[in-house]
Amino acid sequence: MKLRSFALAAAMAVIGTGAYADCAFENTTTVKSLTAGFEAWKAVTDAMAECGNVEAELDQEFRQKQPEAFAANPSLYHIGGVANSTMVPLLNAGTIRPLDDLVAQYGQDLSPNQLIRVDGQIYAIAMMVNAQHLMYRADILAEHNLDVPTTWDEVLETAEYLRSVDAVEYPLGATMKTGWNLAQDFVNMYLGHGGTFFVNGVEPNVNNEAGMGALEMMKAMTAYMDPEYLVSDSTYVQQQFQQGKIAMANLWASRAGAMDDAAESSVVGLVEMAAAPVAVAGQAPASTLWWDGIVIASNISDEEAAAAFQVALEGMDSDMVQANNDAAVWLIDGYTPGRLAQGAIATAVAGTPPYPASTQMGLMHTALGNNVADFLTGAKDATATLEAIEADYMTAAKEAGLL
Amino acid sequence: MKTKTFIMFVGPSVFLMFLFIAAPLVSVFLQSFQVTQGVFEEVIETKCTPGFPAQICTEEASVRRVLDDDGNPVSQTSWVGLDTYRTVLDPDAVSAAFDEGGSGWSQLMTIDFYKALRFTLTFTLITLPLVIGTGLAIALAVNRCVESLKGPVIFVSLLPFIITPVIGALSIRWLFIGDGIMTALLENWTGQDIAMFAQGWTIELLMLFYRVWHVAPFAFVIFYAALQTVNQDTLESAIIDGASRWQRLKYVVIPHLMPLIIFVALIHLMDCYRVFEEIIGFSSQAHVISLQWLTFDYLTPDDSGNRAISRAAANSMLTMIGIVILLIPLLRRTYRDHKNSSH
Fold first, then answer.
1. Where in the cell (chain A) (predicted)?
2. Which of A111, A327, B77, B298 could make a disulfide contact with B36, Cβ separation 3.0–4.6 Å?
3. What is the pLDDT of residues B5-51, one digit of tens each?
4. What is the mean pLDDT of chain A?
5. Residue B76 burial (CB count, 10 A)
């Protein structure tokens, strides 16, 4: 009953602000945007569209298109949606413009946290943060009188107990699909062990204690997971939660909303959020902070850039946030963090480092994604795996001209 | 036919083949001997990212792409000879695997190229007899079918062939992944927990099954058409001579079909050596990769926009060489037959 009235109130709130973000100015220039396609971008581009003459393209494969499209002259898009990592190729190619002037002129409402600076110049406006953090079935833990784990060792103990009492099909889930996901899990765990990926800027540095620790911990986790973990991406883990098959997982904050989606989920209200567990005492949680935001192309006229920037700001204003409060962990004024955002915020507050996006990190991420599986399947031991990662990285870095 | 008419008929397709087949091939061939590198400068970079409650700014040594006066990134191309091939084939790692202290075959199988080659070859060579056998079996069965049923049976047998390969692979994956209905059914029968995607060999089995299911109809159509032209007089005289059904098949039908069996084998080898959809469809990268997938992987840009064009070019040249080597025995046979028949 309580839930229903709450839902009703929420629905009323949305309808009440139905005419939200009537655009503050009339846009007469055609503005095109290319962004990822998840819920938060849908909300932002819908709000941008109210200014008129906006053509929004939402595409999960945007990272393949964006560098080429922005390199065209004139650029094929005015506004680009990026995350920390996908901004790198645009910065490298010089196809996005510094935004300091535009921020000074139109950006009074932006909070300092939103301004993404590279070497002192603003290149992007962030709108939300994302991080992998612990999601757990509060009902299962409570039933067995278990505390919420705060370290990975505790996660393993809890998982061991849940398995011994057969509380759930698989105690753990993880985004360990070979490739990008698996590499991302290693990045989290490696940074959580206090590792750094490079020395002297570009020389690889994973064959060390932290690398060993990260691999061993990942291997230990797999004992409590669905044996098909090497094909398990974010959606797979989300569905495992929704179908009640797992009890804990380190999953993206942007997936939290799906746990309470009554249309898909059989565990509405039962999944709670907490900070990402710590790998080694004294270190920050084993996770990385990501942001999503907008950039403006450089190969367009200044007038177009000004129009595009204003449109983008209209898309990211407080009205939009209030209407879509739970779609993301927003950085925008007017956001009130709900129950589902607690995990991401706790993870960030505990000092989790940002994902170290750079050209060399892109190569490293690929090398990790192609090699970590060999250790998990037993094809290589830890040392050989870490050596192979460094060797793969060296090959790629030489070919790219970094070394 | 007059030479002029001949040229006018053939000219456009020769031109298009040159434009879309020969030219890209030459370009890839050249690229496999070149490396195009970005020019980077070392910088100390300050980066700020959102955090709670305040921004996190880090200052670290990094590299940045050098831009020219027009704001375009500078890159340089150099000829590197066979270096890229050496990187892909990695002879040092191969000799290390078979040296003392190396674990031989299993160590060789951790090098991408050989891992991919092993799968590509076994996949091609195992599916080849299965496709031809199954195709022939269906063709013979349909040929003996009641006239009124032939149409529907042919239609149904052709269905797998008209399904888009990736979609077909995905359908089979969804039947078996996690607690897919087929896995659930198998678990019910055997009473065991089955995970088809947890180890390489089960995924390979699914891939083999999928490929045979998908391609057998092609062999079937070809063989079925050829069966209509088997000389009935020869067959009848074979019956009068007391030949069993098996003997008729072996001494009359198969020799008649032989040129087409070779044709199907040629097409299948060429197609199958480029195995790719299965890897993507079954997302088997952790356990099984193919040569074509390796090229794709080199070409796919990472988040930071890096891609390994040279290695992709070298790898596709090696793939092409592999196909040619596989085809040589069949082409020699066809050539010999052709020569004999022309005498």
1. Periplasm
2. B77
3. 999 999 999 999 999 999 999 999 999 999 999 899 988 888 888 88
4. 91
5. 10
CA angle (A42, A46, A47) in 5-degree steps: 120
Q: What are A18's two structure tokens?
A: 């139905």
Residue whose C-alpha is closest to residue A246's, from A163, A157, A170, A176: A170
Whether the per-residue pLDDT at A256 is higher than 70: the answer is yes
Are A239 and A183 in contact by the 8 Å Cβ rule? The answer is no
How much of chain B exceeds pLDDT 70, in percent? 99
Question: B62 and A289: CB-CB below 8 Å?
Answer: no
Task: Look up the CATH architecture of domain A13-129+289-338.
Answer: 3-Layer(aba) Sandwich (3.40)
pLDDT at A18: 38
Distance CA A336, CA A334 (A): 6
DSSP characters over A248-260: EEEEEGGGHHHHT
The answer to whether the CB of B173 falls within 8 A of the CB of B167 is no
**Residue type at position A69:** A
Omega within 30 of 0 (cis) for the link into B53: yes
Domain spans of chain A, in order of start: 13-129+289-338, 131-288+351-400
Distance CA(A382)–CA(A217), nearest Å, equals 11
Q: What value of ipTM does the predicted structure carry? A: 0.83
Query: Can you tell me the distance from the alpha carbon of A52 to that of A68, in angstroms, rounded to the nearest whole number?
Result: 26
Which domains are seen in chain B, by residue range? 105-342 (1.10.3720.10)
Q: What are phi and psi of B302, to 5 degrees?
A: -80, -175
Interface of A with B in 2-61 (CB under 8 A): none
Cβ of residue A74 closer than 8 Å to a chain B Cβ: no
Distance CA A60, CA A335 (A): 25
* Count of all residues that appear for chain A in the document: 403
Tokens of A47: 């709000």
Please name the residues in contact with A110: beta carbons below 8 A apart, sequence gap of 6 or more: A103, A125, A313
Q: How many whole angstroms separate alpha carbon A159 and alpha carbon A248?
A: 8
CATH code for residues A131-288+351-400: 3.40.190.10
Mutant choice from B110, B302, B307, B315 vs A, greatest count of A C-beta within 10 A: B302
**Cross-chain residue pair B285–A179, CB shorter than 8 Å:** yes
Q: Which residues of A touch B43 (CB under 8 A)?
A: 119
Instruction: With CB atoms and an 8 Å threshold, state whether A201 touches B76.
Output: no
Taking residue B295's Cβ as centre, other Cβ atoms within 10 Å add up to 24
- How far apart are the CA of A323 and the nearest CA of chain B, in angstroms? 22
Q: What is the mean pLDDT of residues B112-128?
A: 95
Q: What is the pLDDT of residues A192-235, one digit of tens each?
A: 999 999 998 899 999 999 999 999 999 999 999 999 999 899 99
- Residue B17: both structure tokens together: 């083949």
DSSP per position, B56-88: EEEEEEEEEE-B-TTSPBPEEEEE-TTHHHHHH
A336 neighbors A59 (Cβ within 8 angstroms): no
Terminal CA-CA length for chain B: 24
Write down the pLDDT at residue B303: 82
B178: nearest CB among A228, A348, A362? A228
**Long-range Cβ contacts of A159-165 (<8 Å, 24+ apart):** A159/A221, A159/A224, A159/A247, A159/A248, A160/A224, A162/A224, A162/A247, A163/A224
What pairing do the DSSP bridges indicate for beta strands A329-330 and A203-204? Answer: unpaired
